[in-house]
Structures are given as structure tokens and as C-alpha cells.
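Please, why this fold?
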Amino acid sequence: MFSVEGINKKIGEFQLDNISFTLEDREILSIIGPSGAGKSSIVKIITGIIRAEGKLVLDGENISKFPPEKRNIGYIPQNIGLFPHLDVRENIEYPLKRRKFPRKEREKLIKEFSNEFGISNLLHRSPLTLSGGEKQKVALVRALIYGPKLLLMDEPLSSVDSQKKEFYLNLIKEIKKRFEVSIIYVTHNFDEAITISDKIVVLKGGKIIRRGIPQELIENPEDLWIASFVKEKNIFKGSFKDGIFCAENSELCFHTPFKKNGEGFLSLRADEIIISKDRFDSSALNVFKGKVKEIVDLNYNCQINAEVKGLIFKVIITKNSLARLKLNLEEEIFLHFKANSLKELKDNF
């Protein structure tokens, strides 16, 4: 197990404020947030490149004051970090030499890992001649070859072609199982984090503003910024009054479970809305007549953008449902959703 306990660090005008989280054995934890949130600074503190207040505990041992080579942590920086003056073989041998592995053991590990990752044919190549995907494999081998307990990956797929990202995300998940290593995965890409993570920590302005499993963040983002960051389809600004919410710049009001007064924000998941050509009896308190404005193909599903009194609702349905409904642009439809499907969003920033 690895834990970060009360990390504080001032870097120029920027402040990391009381950063704490725990990573269990063989888990992948993603740290997500926008540029400048402090993600890379946390990684550098964990590796020992930057010193900070607080504790870093790996398998019950406080490693906060250990030099980087004594922390048993693998690290892949954002720029991959291969040494251009060394060939691939020398790059992956470097951490073994630094940790004083005997020559025969180095040879054995280089052979095993080169075969495992399919880079045996690259050993005498310069990193400058490698593709983004090849560099990524070499960086993985160099980070794993000495058997670390924890692997840090800082925006690892930024140089990988988007068409190959799925392959490398699956590879990273396999690495977790195959090498029994815990992974901290840093990214600004929520889709990557959702695909790969057991846990997610959301960072903004040097503070952790949310943590949880991916599904929790999708189903209940809680915060306006997080809802936008995780690409929530329907976010409404307006005013609350005794369980009713009236949307800004629209005549539309709907029932909510929130007995409060004042301005605020709500979110509504696109798959919580049922659409039909005819109104039907249901337990949904919110039923509105609207018009189809756009039909967007999402590969496996479709997104219906429907207008109700000047407000756009985005609805996700299956392609089978679309075929069954036979919807056309400007066609009138009914939208049904329950009051408790609405989630209040706090505007904390």
C-alpha cells in the first residue's frame, strides 16, 4: 500500500495544499485536472525530485527522506525522458546500473523484458529514431525492469497516436496484473482516467476537490467544475424555490428534490431522460413537449438534442431505439425524467 499524507509545498506563487490519498496494492489511481493544477508537482514529490512537507509511506515505511533511487518507484515523465545520447539497451540498463545490479543479472533482465515487450529489435537503436509508441514501450521497460512497487506515469500517452491509445491503456492494465505493481496515472483526459482507473483524485488549484471510483464521479459529480470536466451533457443554471427549479433564459421550470431557495446549478445525465412520441403515464414528475433539433451519431449510441422552451436537453438513446422511434428533425417529442435524477452542483470556484 502507498499513502500520501498531508503534502504541502509552495512553488513560486503556486501552493499544493494538504494533499492526501491512499493507493492499495495492484490498484491504478488517476490524478486528473487541468494544466497548472499541480499534478506533475505531486509526481515529482513522490519520486523525490522535489522535497515537501508531509509523509510518503510505501508498504509501511516512510520514504519521504529517501533519495529517488532508494524509493523503489518507477517513473515515466511526461516527455518520456529517454536519454538521447544512449541507445535503447543503455537506456533500459541505466536504472539497473544505478542500483548496482550485477552484470549477469542485468543481461538476464534486459533479455527477459525486451522479449516481453517486443523491443528486442530496438536495442541498438537511438531513441531519436523511435516512433511515439516505441518510445512508450522502452520507457515502460526502463521503469519496470528493476521491480518497483509503485509506477508513476505523468501524461504517458501524450505522444501516442490517438488510434493507438486504447492498445496502450489495455497494456498498462495488463502491466498492473502481470508485474503486481500499483500505478499512479496522471492525465488531463477524463476518458483515459475512466478507462484505466480503480480510483480517481480530482485536482484543481493545488487542492483535491473530489475523490472516488470513476462511476461515482460520472453519476454524481457534485461540483460544477467537475461536471464540466467529466463532460456532463446537461448542466442548467437557474433559481430554486421550494422544490421547483426555473432555468435561466427560459420559461421552463421543473420539479427537483431540493427544498431550497436561491440561485444555483443542476445536472441531469443524458441517459436519465426517456423520450417518446406520445405522452405516457409514469412516475416521472417532469414531462415536457419538445422538438428534435439534432441527431448525433455516437458510434454505439445516438444523442438527441431536443429543445423545450428555448432550453436544449441532450438525450442518449440506443440506435435500436432511434430506429424504433423513427425520429425526424423538428418532430415533436415528449421528454420524461424523475425529480431525483437531478443533481445539485456546487460552484466552489
User: Anything to note?
Assistant: The chain has two domains: 2-219, 227-345. Residues 94 and 142 are 8 Å apart (CA to CA). The chain has a mean pLDDT of 93.
